[in-house]
Amino acid sequence: MDIRCTPFGTTHDGRPVERYTLTDGAFSAAVLTLGGVLQSLIVPDRNGVPTDVVLGFDTAADYQAQDCYIGALLGRCANRIAEGRVTLGGRQYQLACNDSGVNHLHGGTAGFDRRIWRASVLSDGLLLRYDSPAGEENYPGRLRASVAYRLSGGTLSIAYTAESDADTLCNLSNHSYFNLGGHASGEVGAQTVCVHAERFTPLGGTGAPTGEIAPVAGTALDLRQPAPLGAGWDSACPQIARAGGYDHNYIIDGTGLRPFAEAYCPATGIALSVRSDMPGMQLYSGNYLRADLPVGKGGVRYGRRHGFCLETQFWPNAPALPHFPQPVLRAGGEYRRLTQFCFSSHC
């Protein structure tokens, strides 16, 4: 595998941003030190045509201007925490309610998606490090996070590790928007998704899970068989209507590295399978992508539902719901998680 580093401009306050491109045969992945963003992901379609299957931007300024977490690493705690309230060790912490003023979302007003990560080249990939000081975004403990991107045989692996000097929350994920027709191909409604989950966590009125665990059977969230995203995202199903499409956490039974989901684009023949050792996965159908975002790569204007996310994670709102698996990293302990995105093409 070949890894090359090129400049990618500077942040608003003058810090340099670098772009590392990992190449393995016909596949390549570009990762930024700004937010650990997956800026491009090139895979061959059924005819061997190189296709960039993630949304993104051409400048650091555009990444800083957008608010949809496009391509970014998420932390310290991905997804929503109702009212931003967390209790650890008998002490309560109030986190920023940066999601419509009612939930803490993806680490706060300046989460890991806004930070500059330190990069080092490995023999088989790229290692990013970020040292989050105690009290950053009001999280307790100094958290040292590392994320390794590796690309081999059509599989992009993202390995997350972290340690802390005090009990804290840790739930790291990646927020890439996939479009298997190519990032410039528009709405993803014809692309099929299959999720290996019999249960999900229903949303309350503010978009955070209520604590209920419900079966997908008999609802538009039942994707145990492949179905086009567009067949369900405007369903009258109350959960779909509440989120404006898919934006739900699926419970993936089992432990260890296991199949989570598959997606497929009939137009290009590109197929994606996801494996992880996390407890769940958020399927998000890009309901809040907007035409007023910065112009995307190559001058493309992205709009609503032009990409979908498959965010492996702990279940959202877990700190408020003790019966959910808890994303608590104990002092002196180690957080270690792995997610793989595996690509192929079909005739």
From TrEMBL:
InterPro entries: Aldose_1-epimerase, Aldose_1/G6P_1-epimerase, Gal_mutarotase_sf_dom, Galactose_mutarotase-like, GH-type_carb-bd. PANTHER family: ALDOSE 1-EPIMERASE (PTHR10091:SF49), ALDOSE-1-EPIMERASE (PTHR10091). Its EC number is 5.1.3.3. One of its GO terms (biological process) is glucose metabolic process. GO terms for molecular function: aldose 1-epimerase activity; carbohydrate binding. Pfam families: Aldose_epim. It catalyses: alpha-D-glucose = beta-D-glucose. Beta-D-galactose binds at residues 79-80, 175-177, 247. It comes from the Bacteria. Keywords: Carbohydrate metabolism, Isomerase. Pathway: Carbohydrate metabolism; hexose metabolism. The active site is at 175 (proton donor), 311 (proton acceptor). Belongs to the aldose epimerase family. This is Aldose 1-epimerase. Coiled coil: none annotated.
